[in-house]
Amino acid sequence: MAVTTVATLLAVAAGVDGPRVVLVCLAVLAGQASIGWSNDWLDADRDRAVARPDKPVVQGAVRPPMLRALACASAALAVVLSLLLGAVPGLLLLVLVASGWAYNAGLKRTAVSVVPYVTGFGALPAGVVAAAPGTPVAPWWLMAAGGALGAAAHLANVAPDIEEDLATGVRGLPHRLGAGVSAGTGALLLGAASLALVLGPDGAPTAAEWGVLVVALPAVALAALAGSPRFRRAAFPAVMLLTVLDVVLLLLGGASLT
User: For residue 42, which of 71, 62, 79, 77 has the smallest C-alpha distance?
Assistant: First the structure.
C-alpha cells in the first residue's frame, strides 16, 4: 500500500493525466500484491518451520495453493494494466514486478539480494514519469534516489527477521553484513537519496529543501545506530523520519519535472 500510494502521488506530481493516474495506481497495486502473495506462497514451509506468528499461512487462514493462484493472477493483471500505459512506462513498471519475483524465487538467499530492490525501485519512478504526456525520460537523480530508497528498504526490512532467516538457510546481503553494518549502510543510503533529490534537479535548491537536509543529516547519524540494541529504540524513529523526508523530496522532484 505504501509503494502504491507513493507511485500514485508521484504520477500526480509528474503531470500524468487523471485516467492514467488511476491506471498507474491499479498497475502498481496489482504488481505489489503479486509480490507479497508470491512471497508468502514460496516461503510457506520456511515460515511454518520458524512459526512466524505474523503470517496468515502459518495461522492456517490461507493455504499455499490459494496464494499461488492469487500471486499468478495479480501478476498477469499487472502485466495487462502496465502495458495499457504504453510499452515504455509499462515495461519500466514491470521491472519492479519482475525484480520482486526474482527476489522471492531465490535471490534473497544470495549476496546480491539487494539488486532486485535497486533495479525495481530505480525503475519505478522512471515508469511513472514515462506515463506522463510525451513519455518523458526520468532524470538520473530521480532513478538514483529510488534505487537508494529501495536498497535501504531491503536492509531495514530484513533486520527483524535475521535470526529466523538464518535458521532456514537464507543468507542475503544484510545477513552477511550483520545488523550493525546493515543499519549504518541503510542510513547512509537514505542520506544519499536526500542529497540526490535536493542537489540533482536543475537550479538552486529551495529553502524548504535545504531545511529538509538540515533535518536529515543528524537523522542519518542517529539512524545508523539502529543495528545496536542499546540505541535501536531511539534510532527507529530516525529511520522512519528519513524515509518520510525522502518520499516528500521524491514527490517534489516529480513536481519539478512539470
Answer: 71
Q: Among residues 178, 203, 207, 220, which one has the least CA distance to residue 256?
A: 203
The rounded distance, in Å, linking the Cα atoms of 201 and 142 is: 9
C-alpha cell at 223: 539512524
Q: Which residues of 116-139 are buried (b: 16+ CB within 10 A; e: fewer)?
A: bbbbbbbbbbbbbbbbbeeebebb
Fold (topology level) of 1-138: Tetracycline Repressor; domain 2 (1.10.357)
**Cα separation of 219 and 231, whole Å?**
13
Instruction: Tell me: pLDDT of 248 over 80.
Output: yes
* Segment 173-183, tens digit of pLDDT: 888 888 788 88
Separation CA 1–CA 68 (nearest Å): 20
Domain boundaries, the chain: 1-138, 153-258
Radius of gyration of the chain (CA): 18
Task: Name the helix (H) or strand (E) containing 141.
Answer: helix 140-158
List, for residues 134-153, the tens digit of each pLDDT value: 999 999 999 999 999 999 98
Compute the 3-state secondary structure of the chain and give helix, strand, coil in percent, each to the nearest 5.
80, 0, 20
Q: What is the Cα–Cα distance from 28 to 8, expressed in whole angstroms? A: 9
pTM reported for the whole predicted model = 0.89
Model confidence at 62: pLDDT above 70: yes
